[in-house]
Amino acid sequence: CARIAANALIPGMMRSKVCEVTAIASRSRDKAEEFAERFGIPRTYGSYEQLLSDPEIQAVYIPLPNALHKPWTIEAARNKKHVLCEKPLACNSDEAQEMRNVCRQNGVLLMEAFAQRFHPQNHKVKQLIETGRIGKIVLITSSMSRSPYPEEDIRMNKDLCGGVLMDMGCYCISSARFFIGAEPVSVFARQDISESGVDVRTAATVYFTAGEILHFDTNLYLSEGHFEQGTTIYGQTGNIYIQQGFSQVETHRLGKLVETPLEITNHLVGGRATETILIAPVHQWQLEAEYFADSILQNSGIDFPGEDGVANMRVIDAIMQSARTGKPVDL
Question: In this model, does residue 124 exceed pLDDT 80?
Answer without folding.
Answer: yes
